[in-house]
Amino acid sequence: MEEEIFLKAEDIIDYVRDNVKTHDILEISYNRIYAPGEVLGVEIEEEYGEEFLEVTLHLNGDLVNQIVRINMHAIKDDLIEIRHTQGEELKVLVAES
Predict the structure, then answer these.
(1) Tally of structural domains, the chain
(2) Domain range spanning residue 39?
(3) What InterPro entries does the entry give (predicted)?
(4) Which domain CATH number covers 30?
């Protein structure tokens, strides 16, 4: 079952922090980048006195099979959508302006 939700970028970050768990599937689209993969971790990090949410993904693909860390606060202005699959449930979080 697919559910489409329209949220502001800050609310999408809050959703990821509160709902995304290890081994979920995230497909993050921002700017011109598409990063699909399995979630290895969701952590709140601190840098220069500011907190930010960091998602670690094991990317899917035949040619690319690597681990990336994405600072969600750094990409929030370029965020287009996130597809979150948890079990049989799919939620599409679309970024509003």
Answers:
(1) 1
(2) 4-88
(3) DUF2097 (IPR019208)
(4) 2.30.30
